[in-house]
Amino acid sequence: LKLLAKIKNKIDDDKIQEILNLMGLNNNKTYKEYSLGMKQKLAIAKAIASGSATMPTMIPAIKSLVKSFTL
């Protein structure tokens, strides 16, 4: 996410951490150590960070998806 933020120059470290916490990815594992589910969560976090997931039609779907991860 930090690389994406650097390329897009839209979000700062605090926002990245907020997104990672939202997705339940607030640990210090490397990508290689992530399970498939964690990699999928990271892909969603990337979409949120890039702004492509913030379209009004996508917000309810993303909220529902995040809730299903945290239950």
Textual characterization of the structure:
The protein has 71 residues and is mainly alpha-helical. Helix 2 (13-22) crosses helix 3 (36-50). It starts with a helix and ends with a helix. It contains four helices and no strands.
Question: Segments where pLDDT lies below 50 for 5+ residues?
Answer: none
Structural class: mainly alpha
Largest sheet: none
Q: Alpha-carbon distance between the termini?
A: 24 Å
Overall radius of gyration: 12 Å
Helix-strand string: HHHH
Into which percent range does the helicity of residues fall? 55-70%
Task: Please describe the topology of this protein.
Blueprint: H1 2-8, H2 13-22, H3 36-50, H4 59-70
Helix pairs in contact: 2-3
Summarize the structure in short.
The chain is mainly α and 71 residues long. It has helices at 2-8, 13-22, 36-50, 59-70.
Kindly list the characteristics that best describe this protein:
mainly alpha, 71 residues, single chain
